[in-house]
Amino acid sequence: NWLYVCHGETVREPGDYTTFEAADQNIVVVRGKDGVLRAFYNVCSHRAHELLKGSGRTKVITCPYHAWSYHIDGTLRSARGSEKVEGFNNDDFCLTPVRVEEFCAFVFVNLDDNAAPLAVQSGGLEADIRGFAPDLDQLTHAHRLTFDLKANWKNVIDNFLECYHCPTAHPAFAGLIELDTYRIVNHGIYSTHHARAGGRENKAYDTIDADVQDHAVWWLWPNTCILRFPGSGNIMTMRMIPTGPETTHEIIDFYFLGRTPDAAQTEAIAYVNDVLTPEDIGIVESVQRGLHSRGYNQGRFIVDEERSGMSEHGVHYFHSLVLDALTD
Predict the structure, then answer these.
(1) Pairing status of strand 234-244 against strand 190-196
(2) Do residues 24 and 39 make contact, with C-beta atoms less than 8 angstroms apart?
(3) Which one of 17, 72, 152, 173 counts the least CB within 10 Å of its CB?
(4) d(Cα 251, Cα 241) in Å, to the nearest integer?
(5) Is the per-residue pLDDT at 218 higher than 70?
């Protein structure tokens, strides 16, 4: 599976790097001096110490344990004392590469060397995103929100894949868009959620003079969501990262045309932080507790032929992908 790492601007210049946790594997993504983006397992070939932390820029990757150093293309640069070891060959101790791909201005990695490229796996996803976000390549990171949820990551995704709960649980959001235009379509490893903006005053944030008059959402298997809310030019990314059987770390990043959010963008961020996300956290944590109840079996999906936002076919489709992954 292709896993979202970061926006491409994080590793845009030679020497730029960022680290990433994929399940129990630590990965580093780094831009080479030749401009090529590469990814490696973030571990020294000598005694398995982690090499880099966080994000930054470096000319050389040096292990903090015994100072073995690597060029940023992953080849071993030096190993102290190796000149005294008979038959020591630097080429035998390069960093182990990981598949990496730049897609829609974002960076993804895949631990499967034989996986098809994300552009192939995802079919028409990039065209659909760029159709709704023609300014995608001009957007820059402006703000980050993080949350820790007491719920399994799949429970969190379930809640994201339908708007059946919106009129009840998100009254302000229900006024932000035209719910009767909300449509959810499943495509291979992703789903699209499209609706028109409400075009009127609402209790979420002001969209009267908004440049973006569509609500567009793309959920990409397994745990990445890309969103474009009504307002000025924007993209949001959400990652639901499993931290345990019943806990999830959620990261929401906002991208605008400028690094400093204006008044309207600040209002939208506040709505997501103070209203929308707490509403969703309350839902998924309640469901997680309810899944332990002896009074619950498995429920029944509500599905309509129009595949509207009120339909739960997107949740069922996600469950089918989970089942396929577990039985592959």
Answers:
(1) unpaired
(2) no
(3) 152
(4) 8
(5) yes
